[in-house]
Design a protein that fits this description.
alpha/beta; 2 domains; about 20% helix; about 350 residues; seven-stranded mixed beta sheet; single chain; Metallo-beta-lactamase, Chain A
């Protein structure tokens, strides 16, 4: 195993094309399969797309976490989210705190570190035969009041997402987007601001960032948001005064901030609200076509994933011997690795989707 942070290794150009080669995985004990990463000596899988005997889960979003596993190893917060969303039973769950190591079969060690994505999200460090692999799941580097920040962990192979792996994706400061939201509330007297946000992670972050910006009024919730927000509160995340919008007179919601699932922005439910300003909190709001598709009046570019600069900076910070790139815009990040003389390959894993990030 290498020690510390060596200089990136030069790649061999492919004779026929002149492009740098994407290397086959050097570690026989960790095998990319279509439905997940297989930790062969332990017969365990990381974020598998189907039910397996032993699953190591990075976080609670549906494209990473599923029910039906014989044994689910995850942080306590992720297990609580999986119990709420997917009915994962306590009997098959093994909680692992940040910095805690679990020894699996075949002399494989798994240690969980914060990923900064959502509540309970983790990177998983796998160690076997003197080699270290970090599997990030999803992550971001920016501060988030709802979860611990990402930690840089030295490793030989760094498995990174590439959801926003194009140079066009550079997310603005969160304070700027909160300012736009609060200005819309002040400038449109009598209207409410209806914010579409993914139910796990994004909704709670928007609420917490509003509080950080000084907004102390009631924030109203669509019924689909309540249980997850209460789970966050149960795990120590203060979201302030939250109330369900059901049964509240229309006039009482003038100038209110209401958080709902993206699917509710333009459905029948929203028609009972006082002339809503429709807002959407997502990294995809950088893309005008997506703004038009959603019929969004106020796009808020707020992401729980790393943007282009965060992705490239993280690879540089970790400085692994190899980088494996998955679920996202793999080609551009792979090309960046090639241009910076970093050994890299793209993985073809099934089951990963664009979240309403």
């Amino acid at each position: 195993m290498r020690q510390g942070h060596p200089a990136p290794r030069a790649l061999e150009p492919e004779a026929a094309t002149g492009h740098f080669m994407t290397m086959a995985p050097p570690f026989s004990w960790l095998r990319p399969e279509p439905h997940g990463l297989h930790v062969v000596p332990a017969d365990a899988w990381v974020d598998p797309a189907r039910a397996v005997d032993t699953a190591l889960v990075t976080h609670g979003h549906a494209d990473h976490a599923r029910g039906g596993h014989g044994r689910t190893v995850a942080t306590p917060e992720t297990l609580a989210i999986m119990a709420l969303r997917y009915g994962v039973m306590e009997a098959g769950s093994q909680p692992v705190g940040y910095g805690e190591t679990v020894t699996l079969r075949g002399d494989v060690r798994a240690t969980y570190y914060p990923a900064g994505h959502v509540l309970g999200s983790a990177q998983i460090l796998l160690e076997h035969a003197g080699e270290r692999v970090i599997i990030t799941g999803d992550y971001k580097r920016r501060p988030d009041p709802t979860c611990p920040p990402f930690e840089v962990v030295p490793c030989d192979v760094f498995v990174t997402e590439a959801t926003f792996g194009l140079p066009v994706f550079r997310h603005p400061p969160i304070a700027q987007e909160m300012g736009k939201l609060l200005a819309a509330r002040e400038n449109d007297a009598g209207r409410c601001v209806l914010v579409g946000a993914y139910a796990l992670g994004k909704a709670q972050r928007v609420i917490a960032e509003l509080r950080a910006a000084g907004f102390a009024d009631t924030i109203w919730l669509h019924g689909a948001m309540e249980r997850m927000c209460r789970l966050y509160e149960d795990h120590g995340v203060d979201l302030g005064d939250l109330r369900p919008v059901a049964g509240v007179p229309k006039a009482a919601l003038a100038n209110a901030v209401i958080v709902c699932p993206p699917s509710a922005l333009n459905d029948r439910w929203s028609r009972r609200l006082p002339d809503p300003v429709t807002a959407m909190a997502s990294g995809w709001m950088r893309v005008r076509q997506r703004v038009r598709q959603r019929n969004v009046e106020l796009p808020l570019v707020i992401s729980d994933h790393a943007d282009w600069d965060e992705l490239t900076a993280t690879i540089a910070d970790v400085n692994p011997s190899e980088t494996w790139i998955t679920h996202g815009r793999e080609e551009a990040l792979l090309r960046w690795c090639e241009l910076t003389q970093r050994r890299a390959r793209a993985l073809a894993l099934a089951g990963y989707e664009d979240e309403d990030d």
